[in-house]
Write a structure and sequence with these properties.
The chain is of the alpha/beta class. The protein is built from 15 helices and 12 strands. The protein folds into 2 domains: about 250 residues, Vaccinia Virus protein VP39 (Rossmann fold); about 120 residues, no CATH class. Bound molecules: S-adenosylmethionine.
């Protein structure tokens, strides 16, 4: 471990507690934002305002931890941006983000929807055991499996890939709602045995409701883009931001993102959230089960701390004195984050702005100032300035407000009720 004195503190500007970033009553489900739920989604109003303030004349935008693509949707609706890049390791995130950023004529969707609806009627003898999921009856009731099987077959018959993707997203959202999993959780937990008997979802009507809602959202998105009359080029890659990506060097004018705020084991499990849908969609099991492991901090790394952040050094010392293994896990996450900074540095243009929306979690009772750590990791490179950090309260974001910082059952603390908007500039 480094000597504390050997780290020169980098200069960070004072934080601004600015409640105008809260947007407590805003409609977060406009356009295609409501196509599919996803953990820790960025609210559109935050992305929109960041683009308006720091991206007045930008043409290219990147979200290197794109998730469901909220930032890309806002980027498409932001007048000057024409090239939009998104990266994520999760195949379900790729499908959702592609569907959310693909404007489709609502009439085409309506037409396909009525074909699917009448087709299902005739698929009475659809083969069972169609899905490649071993313990399928643990997660779904028999009548649900039959209905999902008919839906999936009807959707797979759609020739036009973009239209098929739209309905696959509706299918995936249906899977979440009709499975035997507890709703409102990111992790995969089955409904308690005694409540399971009363759980009898009507799969087809849930699918129909989701399709209607999503066509409405697409209608608003399609009309707004038509009104703007601009051409967007959206490039979405299933890649790892720690490695060299397909994005050209010095190509991005602005970065807007909400990265993971810790490893998936102890924070948000994107892989677990996506697992059932991804398996029923037919994604390779090997890939699906590794999403959490392949995320930032997903694998423990025994490298020493050589990262240039005084804040990180301080909290690691505290956590190490309480639990060496947890300290290693925290450090592994930041080592991975620093690899992403190398890649981000390669693709960002000089004078570009970088906006990170992060949460500060607690480990073993120690609050981790991820906002300061990110700012230090960038500014210590010498070619980044810290413009400011805004603090906003989280009224809407689907995040665990209570966690177990000590991993001791019953010991919880209120956390993640604030977000930090770290604004940096490449110089
Ligand atoms: C907070 S979520 C992003 C949510 C997004 N802003 C939205 O509104 O849907 C963070 C994302 O980072 C992705 N991720 C984790 N590790 C990654 C890596 N090494 N490279 C690229 N993406 C990664 C996760 O799969 C997850 O989708």
């Amino acid at each position: 471990m480094q000597n504390l004195m050997s780290l020169a503190p980098t200069i960070l500007r004072e934080k601004q507690r600015d409640f105008s970033w809260d947007f407590p009553t805003a409609d977060t489900k406009e356009f295609t934002h409501n196509l599919h739920s996803y953990p820790a989604m960025m609210i559109p109003q935050v992305a929109r305002r960041l683009l308006r303030v720091y991206g007045k004349s930008v043409t290219s935008l990147i979200d290197p931890f794109m998730g469901s693509g909220s930032v890309l949707v806002e980027g498409m609706l932001h007048e000057p941006t024409t090239t939009l890049y998104g990266i994520d390791i999760n195949p379900l995130a790729i499908l959702i983000a592609k569907a959310k950023t693909t404007p489709l004529k609502p009439e085409l969707l309506e037409k396909e929807f009525s074909r699917i609806s009448s087709n299902i009627e005739y698929k009475k003898d659809a083969e069972l055991g169609f899905f490649n999921l071993q313990n399928i009856s643990y997660w779904f009731k028999q009548n649900v499996i039959e209905a999902l099987s008919k839906l999936k077959k009807s959707i797979d018959e759609i020739e036009h890939e973009k239209i098929r993707n739209f309905f696959l997203v509706c299918f995936s959202e249906t899977v979440r709602k009709v499975s035997n999993t507890r709703q409102g959780e990111f992790k995969l937990y089955r409904i308690e045995e005694k409540k399971l008997a009363a759980h009898s979802p009507d799969t087809i009507s849930i699918f129909n409701q989701i399709v209607k809602r999503n066509i409405k959202g697409m209608h608003a998105f399609y009309s707004s883009l038509k009104f703007l009359d601009k051409k967007n080029e959206v490039k979405i890659y299933k890649e790892d931001t720690r490695l060299k990506t397909s994005i050209p060097s010095d190509s991005c004018d602005i970065l807007v993102t909400s990265p993971p705020y810790g490893d998936s084991r102890t924070t948000v499990a994107y892989g677990q959230f996506s697992r059932l849908s991804s398996q029923l969609l037919g994604y390779p099991y090997d890939e699906v089960k590794r999403v959490d492991q392949n995320g930032l901090g997903g694998k423990r790394n025994y490298e020493e701390n050589g990262l240039p952040s005084l804040h990180l050094k301080k909290i690691l010392d505290k956590i190490t004195s309480l639990d060496k293994i947890r300290a290693l896990d925290v450090l592994s996450f930041y080592h991975d984050f620093d690899k992403c900074i190398d890649e981000i540095n390669r693709i960002m243009k000089i004078n570009s702005h970088l906006c990170f929306v992060v949460g500060n979690r607690t480990v073993k009772g120690v609050k981790i100032p991820t906002d300061d750590i990110i700012a230090e990791l960038f500014t210590s490179r010498g070619n980044y300035g810290h413009i400011t950090t805004f603090i906003r309260r989280i009224p809407n974001k689907r995040m665990p407000k209570i966690n177990s910082p000590s991993n001791v059952k019953g010991v919880t603390s209120s956390t993640m009720d604030k977000e930090y908007l770290v604004i940096l500039k490449k110089i």
